[in-house]
Structures are given as C-alpha cells and as structure tokens.
Write a structure and sequence with these properties.
The protein has 461 residues and is mainly beta. The protein has one helix and 38 strands. The longest helix has 38 residues. The protein is elongated, with a radius of gyration of 44 Å.
C-alpha cells in the first residue's frame, strides 16, 4: 500500500518503475515501461536523463496510480537509464530509481566456447571464452532462466580477436544451464550485440553412476549393429552417451528418454571408449560417469593364427599357453572366449619387430575354462580397430580322472585315521598322568601293600 503524501510539505513517496516483458529487449520488439506510485501524483512522466520522453511512446493509463509507456518497435537509441516522475505540477516527489533499458541486436554476435569442455564434473572449474570482432566495450555473460545478475567483464585488448574469459567454479548443481554472451559499446553501454551461440554447461557427478553394457558384446564385425544399454536403479528418465574424443573430454551430452543406444551399421568411426550418464528431464545435472566400455570393431586387417603350444587338450588343473601370431605388423593382441561376457584379454608388444606374436598363459585349468577361443590383432595408432578373427581354437580340459577321485578319498580317510589316532594318544597320556595319583592314596592302618617289607627305624640319639 502506498504512503499518503506529507500534509505539510506536499512531498509524495518515490514511485516505482518496471519493464515488461523485461529490461533487456531485442531491437525491433515491443517494451512497456510502467510507472506506479501515489494516487496524488496525477499520473506520471517518463524521463531519460533530465529529458521527458513521453512524446516518443504511446501512453497507457491502467489506473489512477499506474501509467505505462509503450515503445514499439524498439530502436537502438531507446537504450539508456529511465526514471518516473509525477505528472501534477503542484506535487513534489523524488523520481524513481533508474532503470537501465538494454537493447540487444545492435551489433553482430560474439562467439562463446568452454575450455576444456562444457561437460564439467561437480567441484571442477571451467573457463568460458567470449570473443568478438566488433565489440569494443564490455562483455556480458548471462545464464538463461537464472536468478543471478549477469556477469560483467571489461574487454581487454588481445592480439587478433578481442575476448574476455569468465572463470566459473567450483561447479555445483546451480551452475548447470544454458549460457549466452553479449558485447556492448563503450559509448553506449546499454546497446548490446546480438546474443552469442547458446552454450550448455552440463554438471556431472551429482547422482549415483549407472552401468554400461554392450549387447550382444563389445566385439562387433564391420557392418553389424549393437546396442549400448545404460542401466541404473536411480529412477533416471534421461540418458546420455559419451565417447572419448581426446584429452578435452566430451563436448556435449545429448540426452534421450530411453537407456538403449543403437549403433550401426558399424564402421571404423564407431570404435572407441564409451560411457554413459543418467539424469532427469529438462535438467543439465547428471550422474557420475558409468564404467568405461571399449567398443572393438572387427575386420580392419587380415586374420592372425591361434595355436596351443603344448596342444589343445589340457589335463584338469594343468597349464596351457595360447599363442596368437600375425604375418603383418601388429602391436596389440586380443584373446576372447566365444559365449563369454567377460571383456577380451589383450597384450601390448614390448618390441615392435617380427615375429609379431603374443602368448596368453592359463594356469590350473578347469572344465569351465574350456571352449572356443579366437584372437585378434591391432595397432597402437588405432587400438579399437581389430583384425578379422583367427580361426576358432577348441580348448578341451579333461575331467578329473577316477584315480584322482580315489586319491582324494584315500587322503580323506588317512586324515580321518590321523584324527582318531590323535584322540587315542591324548586319552592314553591323560590316563598315565592319573595313575600315580591313585597309588598315593592313604590305606587303612595295619594294611600293607603286597610285596612291601617294613624295617624298624632306630636312632642313635
């Protein structure tokens, strides 16, 4: 409720000024500046500096204590500081607080980028670079939908393209969102450029990590397809797949509402390391990254050969060495078991010279480790692009023999006998310690122990 005028001095309370739809408007659009104050003001005037600018606008009288000034279309020279004052010449009142009307779209847009990446882990930091060929004043960084005031930084002269750096962090959930930057003129600070490209800052590590699996497996032939599934128990309704693209990390997270990502038909560009994130709709906040999954594309080079050095038939609990050999240069060798969900084993060659081969040794083999094996080769320059698979090698592990079972039974019986003998020996030793105590028991007077002779005892004293 507005205060009454001072009956002695006639001073009215200071009016309020506001802008609809906001104090930052694009060039060519519409804006209404509202003045609201005392009923005794008799209406309001709009001032830009010390000059009344009522004549430049259409006046709306919404009520006796509220007046609107409409500017349409907004021109670049409409920018500036505005104040409201009373219309009645007989009333005395202070003007309202100044309102800065910003007109955007006066200059070409700057460009906005994030370094090292717009995908930032919670607690980390990121630098946003705003650069322009034309702006020579202040650069402004704004977050869409954010309650905070825009960040301002004075332009500093750099060779080439003028730019400023906004350092953001340590990151938390409130930093996630869409950012734009603007450039402004030194002479007219409320004349801004067009907005830069939107930049989405994604904050990860806020929720529990999901788990990434490949169906039917992470080894896939060129031309085939597979599905990467991002599993989670956290109730996410948005999922994003990321891929290793150098030391900078992922440059964006494109979310979708299902956890399955279909890839294919496969070619060399699909090979690489993947992981996923979980989140919620209309949010730039994500979980911690899932496990890393290496997607291996098969069929780039000619096939190697796989052999068992001591034969493919292995005794139970025996050892075996599988050798993968390539006729062409190779630096990494891979070994996988068909039908196994475990990731393939791999070995890097220490010496990049012929012969190109690697040995995979297994100890204490069991029947579960038997099966069909294949090997592959690749180069360190493209480790996720594998050769064609070798011919399958069927590894047969014999079952435990009857003699082995009999020996196990005999060992168990021998152990049982030793336990029984130990118990008997303990009892015998216990009994032997008790017998002397029994012999020292007092007998009735006059009774003699058989075989005992009593000799008189005399004394020379």
């Amino acid at each position: 409720m507005w205060e009454h005028s001072d009956s002695v001095t006639g001073t009215l309370p200071k009016p309020n000024i506001s802008a609809e739809p906001g104090a930052m408007v694009p060039k060519g659009s519409r804006v209404t500046l509202w003045c609201e104050g005392s009923l005794h003001a008799g209406g309001f005037r709009l001032y830009k500096g010390d000059v009344s600018v009522d004549w430049e606008s259409d006046v709306l009288q919404e009520s006796s204590n509220k007046t609107g000034f409409v500017f349409e279309p907004v021109a670049s020279h409409y920018e500036g500081l505005y104040q409201c004052g009373p219309l009645s010449p007989t009333s005395s009142s202070e003007r309202s607080e100044p309102l800065a009307l910003v007109v955007t779209g006066v200059f070409p847009p700057p460009s906005l980028s994030a370094h090292p990446s717009p995908v930032v882990e919670a607690g980390g930091r990121v630098t946003l670079s705003c650069s322009s060929e034309t702006a020579r004043g202040t650069f402004h960084l704004l977050k869409e939908g954010g309650a905070d005031l825009p960040l301002h930084m004075e332009q500093r002269p750099f060779p080439g393209r003028p730019q400023v750096l906004f350092h953001v962090g340590p990151m938390n959930a409130s930093h996630g969102g869409t950012y734009r930057c603007y450039g402004s003129s030194s002479s007219y600070p409320q004349q801004w450029s067009e907005p830069s490209n939107p930049l989405n800052l994604e904050v990860t590590g806020v929720f529990q990590a999901p788990f990434l699996v490949a169906q039917p497996g992470q080894l896939v032939l060129t031309g085939d397809s597979l599905t990467l599934q991002c599993h989670s128990h956290a109730g996410f309704d948005r999922f994003a797949l990321a891929r290793e693209e150098g030391p900078q990390g992922p440059q964006r997270l494109d979310g979708q509402h299902i956890p399955d990502f279909l890839l294919g038909p496969m070619n060399s560009s699909h090979g690489g390391r993947y992981w996923c994130f979980g989140g919620h709709s209309r949010s730039h906040i994500w979980s911690a990254p899932s496990n890393y999954l290496d997607l291996l594309v098969v069929g780039t080079y000619s096939r190697p050969t796989l052999s068992a050095l001591l034969g493919a038939q292995v005794p139970w609990r025996g050892n075996v060495t599988l050798q993968c050999h390539s006729d062409i240069p190779a630096e990494i060798f891979w070994l996988s078991k068909e039908g196994s969900s475990a990731p393939p084993q791999f070995q890097w060659l220490l010496y990049k010279a012929s012969p190109y081969q690697a040995n995979f040794t297994f100890s204490a083999m069991t029947q579960e480790q038997g099966g069909s094996y294949r090997c592959y080769s690749s180069l360190s320059s493209a480790p996720h692009l594998l050769s064609l698979p070798s011919a399958p090698l069927q590894l047969l592990v014999s079952a435990p023999s009857d003699h082995t079972v009999e020996n196990a039974v005999r060992m168990a019986m021998a152990a049982l006998v030793l336990v029984v003998l130990g118990v008997l020996l303990f009892q015998a030793r216990f009994t032997s310690h008790e017998e002397p105590r029994m012999q020292l028991t007092r007998r009735p007077e006059g009774e003699q122990t058989p075989g005992t002779v009593h000799l008189p005892c005399t004394s020379g004293l």
